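Private note to self, pasted from the team thread so I don't lose it. Backbone tokens:
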């Protein structure tokens, strides 16, 4: 087991966001506990997280940045634009990069632009292939497919998988980094009381291309918050708005803590009373820690997750629009007036994601007890 190697093919960019890389890192961390050596194959897109992955202790085999992409490339498939070049070329480059790593027992792929055609092309470079997905819109050819979406059913992948593929659906498969397991009990314990709303965490992903954080922050400062409420705004390493946000925070009267490229997100979430975030991978992190949340849909593929979490009482859904400040103020004032609603939402969220699937999956593919 100690000599096992696992490779990940995953990208981050201003378009893709950080969630795919973060859940792959969660899996890689769990594998590392089981003695596995992992590497990442990632393209140098603008907004990539290659350096972050390296600082997390993993080798990254980087694929070259692209230039001169035809303007009509990917017109029929928007996710092809995320890859930036034909899948055949990406497969060739991935195979070439992996020659420097050796033959992995498993190749993990997490990318909306890749499907069974790419998977069949690279299949001979590894012993087995595992796909992480949450968007059943294309065919796959793999040994295992993981979809951690709440309410996902095997029938959603009907006709999309090879017959020998083992399908694992549902939030019991959610991939969370070990730090979240370390903070879960403390986070849940502090929410059992009816403590008033004192600390709001705002984190809208590693990129936040549209600078929604600014809109939320300004709306909160105008929402009539009690004077003793602190706002904690987290910006990702790839944020385009760091300088502008620093200048804005310096002008505000509200108490705001600005944090950039944090490595202790679990601790920050555990210490807040309410979080405002996107309905992507971070939604499962908030649920696992029982953090009451106001949730925004910042990408098309987040709509399903948002609707299901809202229906389950695990988060309040807030849509973008000109009336956002008014609606946000109403929601926050409700939580200020009724701390019990925060506790009820915390209980609903924590019940949805009672444990992380990363360690269980790592033990399964390594054969560890």
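Design output:
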């Amino acid at each position: 087991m100690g000599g096992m190697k696992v490779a990940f093919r995953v990208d981050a960019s201003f378009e893709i966001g950080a969630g795919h890389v973060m859940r792959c890192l969660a899996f890689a961390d769990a594998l590392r506990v089981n003695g596995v050596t992992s590497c990442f194959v990632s393209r140098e897109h603008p907004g990539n997280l290659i350096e972050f992955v390296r600082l997390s202790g993993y080798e990254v085999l980087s694929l070259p940045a692209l230039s001169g992409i035809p303007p009509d490339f990917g017109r029929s498939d928007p996710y092809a634009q995320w890859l930036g070049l034909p899948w055949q070329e990406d497969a060739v480059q991935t195979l070439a990069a992996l020659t420097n790593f050796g033959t992995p027992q498993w190749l993990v792929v997490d990318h909306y632009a890749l499907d069974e055609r790419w998977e069949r092309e690279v299949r001979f470079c590894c012993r087995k292939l595992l796909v992480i997905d949450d968007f059943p819109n294309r065919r796959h050819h793999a040994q295992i497919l993981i979809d951690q979406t709440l309410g996902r059913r095997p029938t959603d992948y009907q006709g999309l998988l090879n017959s020998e593929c083992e399908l694992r659906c549902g939030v019991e498969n959610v991939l969370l980094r070990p730090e979240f397991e370390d903070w879960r009990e403390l986070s849940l314990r502090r929410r059992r009381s009816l403590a008033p709303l004192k600390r709001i965490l705002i984190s809208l992903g590693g990129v936040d291309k549209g600078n929604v954080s600014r809109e939320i922050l300004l709306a909160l400062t105008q929402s009539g918050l009690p004077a003793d409420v602190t706002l904690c705004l987290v910006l990702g390493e790839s944020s385009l708005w760091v300088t502008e946000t620093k200048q804005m925070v310096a002008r505000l009267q509200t108490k705001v803590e600005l944090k950039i490229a944090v490595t202790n997100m679990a601790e920050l979430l555990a210490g807040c009373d309410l979080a405002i975030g996107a309905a992507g991978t971070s939604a499962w992190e908030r649920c696992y820690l029982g953090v009451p949340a106001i949730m925004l849909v910042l990408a098309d593929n987040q709509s399903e997750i948002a609707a299901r979490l809202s229906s389950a009482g695990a988060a309040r859904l807030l849509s973008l629009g000109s009336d956002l400040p008014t609606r946000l103020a109403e929601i926050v004032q409700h939580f200020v007036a009724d701390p019990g609603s925060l506790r009820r939402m915390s209980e609903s969220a924590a019940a949805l994601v009672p444990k992380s699937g990363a360690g269980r999956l790592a033990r399964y593919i390594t054969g560890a007890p």
